[in-house]
Amino acid sequence: MSAASAPKGEGVPGTALLEATDLGVGYPGRLVGSGLSLSLTGGEVLALLGPNGCGKTTLLKTLLGLLPALGGAVQLQGRTLAAWPLAERARVLAYVPQGQTSTFGFTALEMVLMGRTAHLGLLARPGAKDRAVAHEALARLGIAHLAVRSVHEISGGERQLVLIARALAQQPHAVLLDEPTASLDFGNQGLVMHAIRALAAQGLAVLFTTHDPNQALRCADRAMLMREGRVMAEGAAGQVIEAGALRALYGAGVLTVHDAAGGLPAFLPEPAPGASPAANS
């Protein structure tokens, strides 16, 4: 990786970059979650699982400073989040929202260049260095060949990788992704999960939300289970993600499928009583 593309001060493994302590999250007059604590360190992936409406996205937006905390504190590199100027914060924390599309036919390179905004002065245009960073962000994710393609002409998985590349162009220390594989087909989900592991291998801290326990089990180092605005469990993904915990988390039956080779199990929602295998194929 060249100096042009290497994020400044990428996360050092074992060093906390982002910490939340007894955090309250929500909106004016409506508390969505409380007592939420977590830490995110360089070189690791943390998966956040929970049913719809449990507060996952609200928590992410509070960690990013897009919503004010309703209690507790968020610290970024040891400083209170509120003490960070917005542009400076954007050079450290990157956000990939779920299912974002563009009305305009930007090329992949143009989309990624938008990530350089935090490094540019008011009304400044991207220069040669910014273009080098953008090109190398695309290359880091293996999609350099898409640079001149319109985002309307590429697959959903490739478009999601472009959004991740845009986040990388900020040269952040941590990347937070909200349901990065939502609406993607099986193959494209694999592309995005591979990219998330690659980010951690390059030293970034990564947090992503998901509804798929199998993705979390195979991609994350740690997992946090969240229900009704509270943390139910948190720890190593292989210990936290198990059938009993998932039943309690989602209030639904869970089938466990074991690999004949003794690898990681897979978890499936239990079919409705009386349903035949053919009806669920």
From TrEMBL:
InterPro entries per UniProt: AAA+_ATPase (IPR003593), ABC_transporter-like_ATP-bd (IPR003439), ABC_transporter-like_CS (IPR017871), P-loop_NTPase (IPR027417)
UniProt cross-references to SUPFAM superfamilies, sorted A to Z: P-loop containing nucleoside triphosphate hydrolases (SSF52540)
Keyword terms of this UniProt record: ATP-binding, Cell membrane, Membrane, Nucleotide-binding, Translocase, Transport
Signal peptide residues on this chain, from the entry's feature table: none
GO terms for MF: ATP binding
Coiled coil: none
Residues covered by the ABC transporter domain: 18-253
PANTHER family hit by this protein: HEMIN IMPORT ATP-BINDING PROTEIN HMUV
Function recorded in the entry: Part of the ABC transporter complex HmuTUV involved in hemin import. Responsible for energy coupling to the transport system.
Name the UniProt record assigns to this protein: Iron complex transport system ATP-binding protein
Organism: Hydrogenophaga laconesensis
